[in-house]
């Protein structure tokens, strides 16, 4: 018979992703007794490592932008190093099966004009938006009433512009343009520092990777919290009685003064709350559905595309692979291409078929040498068995204006963190850290301490 352990703590943190580990770290360093309860049998959440040709690579979060100072502080705390994302040379563009080796933004002249026209319109709308309370924008109701796709149609966006925006939507929200609200798109772009910043490698969101993978970093952070991290313990119930909150998993019952839930909003409602959360919190959970994005890695003896002056960056409207990057450890090899794959043309197939589809498209993009792969691996976030989905919620029309204000509003003794709740860089690891710090600070204040801002 299984026995249930009964414990107590000042604070229980639900979720051992970067937000949860940060919140716990801040509170432990302030002297509080903290337990972290994680449903998966590993830490990291949407940060995960896998291996290809003996090289560890990031199946989840990878890049750190120059302004992601919270993330950079964490890397330097553990003596980590960055590797600049390789981007020297030309990109490959393939729309409608026509492959062009040029700068990645080089479309036909009329397509370029249309793309800049639409990007400028997007940026103008972005400029006036309040990031922390987008529902307060005077035009919020209208901007939130339509999907990004409907807006593009209203702008008479040309086919290539739409394909470009689809790629942007798939990689950021794991969903096509018709599934995300325009207000969500604008708010997200603003929160990441503008569209140019989002697209850039040097000086932008794709600037650096972490040497030895991001997962290695979160694992080291989790190591400092041992033995406070309980893995393989999905939280089933959170019950508030008077001044105490009880967190129950199959194996643990923990009494605490406060709980910080860091599960992505869609997964909050998998927990049974007593008393029930106010109704809008369930609405939030229903409408903040996580998208689905898949990553495939293909290894070659060397990064052969570099010999032809190619950067390994490609953009495509293929139904499987829509974006590639060169994540080779060095010019000597192995050469590793990382491919972002559209879950709709990828997730339903078995591994052999996925591999066949990815390599077939890499041959189209990079020529015959791409057929001779040394190794292949992939990961589908939509098919993950616990807390599936990623990278970000595909927030549909009307969800921000109806439920957005409840994202981080505490309910009794329960506080909320997670990258989605961050005011800046939400959707990134940096946002996850900021949200963890904010929730830790809220709880510490209620426990009678004021936390020092942003300890590194
Ligand atoms: C494919 C992909 C690529 C990405 N690329 C980048 C990138 O290049 N740069 C970047 O900055 N960000 C990137 N991201 C986003 C980044 O991974 C996230 O923003 C960040 O890791 C979120 O951290 P979090 O702690 O808020 O949430 P999570 O990592 O989702 O952590 C939440 C945790 O809660 C746990 N949980 C859920 N429900 C329960 C429950 N009932 N009981 C117990 N535990 C529970 C989950 O298992 C999970 O571990 C990417 C994400 C994906 C999927």
Structure report:
- The chain is α/β, with parallel strands linked by helices and 456 residues long.
- Among the domains are: 5-45 and 215-277 and 411-447, FAD/NAD(P)-binding domain; 109-195, Guanine Nucleotide Dissociation Inhibitor, domain 1 (Orthogonal Bundle).
- It has helices spanning 18-29, 69-77, 109-127, 140-145, 148-154, 159-173, 182-191, 195-199, 214-225, 265-268, 279-287, 304-307, 351-366, 399-403, 429-447, and strands at 5-14, 34-37, 49-52, 55-58, 82-84, 90-95, 98-102, 208-210, 229-230, 237-241, 244-248, 252-261, 272-274, 293-300, 310-316, 321-326, 335-342, 375-380, 414-416.
- Strands 1, 2, 9, 10, 11, 12, 13 and 19 form an eight-stranded mixed beta sheet that branches. A seven-stranded mixed beta sheet has the order 7-6-15-16-17-14-18, with helices on both faces.
- Strand 10 (237-241) and strand 11 (244-248) form a beta hairpin.
- Helix 1 runs parallel beside helix 9 (214-225), helix 1 (18-29) packs parallel to helix 15 and helix 3 crosses helix 7 (182-191).
- The longest helix has 19 residues, at 109-127.
- The protein is globular, with a radius of gyration of 22 Å.
- The relative contact order is 0.20.
- Flavin-adenine dinucleotide (FAD) is lined by residues 14-20, 37-40, 45-47, 60-63, 234-235, 262-264, 267, 270-271, 293, 295, 381, 386-387, 390-391, 418-419, 427-430, 432.
- It comes from Actinoplanes missouriensis (strain ATCC 14538 / DSM 43046 / CBS 188.64 / JCM 3121 / NBRC 102363 / NCIMB 12654 / NRRL B-3342 / UNCC 431).
- Its cofactor is FAD.
- Residues 18-443 form the Amine oxidase domain.
- This is Putative amine oxidoreductase.
- Substrate binds at residue 340.
């Amino acid at each position: 018979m299984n026995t249930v352990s009964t414990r107590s703590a000042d604070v229980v943190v639900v979720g051992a992703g970067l937000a949860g580990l940060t919140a716990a770290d801040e509170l432990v360093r302030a002297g509080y007794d903290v337990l972290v309860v994680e449903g998966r049998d590993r830490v990291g959440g949407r940060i995960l490592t896998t291996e290809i040709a003996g090289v560890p690579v990031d199946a989840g979060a990878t890049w750190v932008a120059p302004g992601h100072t919270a993330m950079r502080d964490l890397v330097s705390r553990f003596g980590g190093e960055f590797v600049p994302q390789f981007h020297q040379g030309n990109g490959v563009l393939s729309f409608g099966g026509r492959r062009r080796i040029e700068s990645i933004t080089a479309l036909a002249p009329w397509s370029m004009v249309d793309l800049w026209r639409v990007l400028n319109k997007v940026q103008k709308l972005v400029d006036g938006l309040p990031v922390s309370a987008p529902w307060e924008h005077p035009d919020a109701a209208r901007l939130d009433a339509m999907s990004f796709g409907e807006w593009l149609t209203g702008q008479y966006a040309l086919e290539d512009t739409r394909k470009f925006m689809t790629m942007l939507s798939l990689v950021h929200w794991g969903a096509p343009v018709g599934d995300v609200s325009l207000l969500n798109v604008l708010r997200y772009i603003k929160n990441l520092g503008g569209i140019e910043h989002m697209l850039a490698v040097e000086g932008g969101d794709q600037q650096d990777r972490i040497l030895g993978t991001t997962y290695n970093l979160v694992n080291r952070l989790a190591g400092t919290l041992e033995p406070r991290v309980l893995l393989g313990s999905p939280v089933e119930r959170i019950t508030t009685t008077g001044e105490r909150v009880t967190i129950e998993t199959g194996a643990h019952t923990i009494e605490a003064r406060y709980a910080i839930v860091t599960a992505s909003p869609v997964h909050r409602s998998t927990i049974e709350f007593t008393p029930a959360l106010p109704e809008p919190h369930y609405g939030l959970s229903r409408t903040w559905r996580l998208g689905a994005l898949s990553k495939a890695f293909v290894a070659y003896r060397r990064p052969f595309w570099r010999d032809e002056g190619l950067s390994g960056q490609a953009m495509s409207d293929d139904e499987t692979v829509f974006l590639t990057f060169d994540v080779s450890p060095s010019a000597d090899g192995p050469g590793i291409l990382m491919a972002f794959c559209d879950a709709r043309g990828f997730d339903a197939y078995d591994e052999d078929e996925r591999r066949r589809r990815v390599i077939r498209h890499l041959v189209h993009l990079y020529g015959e040498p791409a057929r001779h792969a040394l190794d292949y691996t992939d990961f589908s976030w939509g098919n993950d068995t616990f807390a599936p989905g990623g990278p970000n919620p595909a927030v549909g029309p009307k969800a921000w204006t109806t439920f957005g204000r409840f994202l981080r509003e505490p309910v009794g003794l329960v506080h909320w963190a997670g990258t989605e709740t961050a005011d800046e860089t939400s959707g990134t690891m940096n946002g996850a850290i900021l949200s963890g710090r904010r929730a830790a600070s809220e709880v510490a204040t209620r426990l009678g301490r004021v936390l020092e801002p942003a300890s590194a």
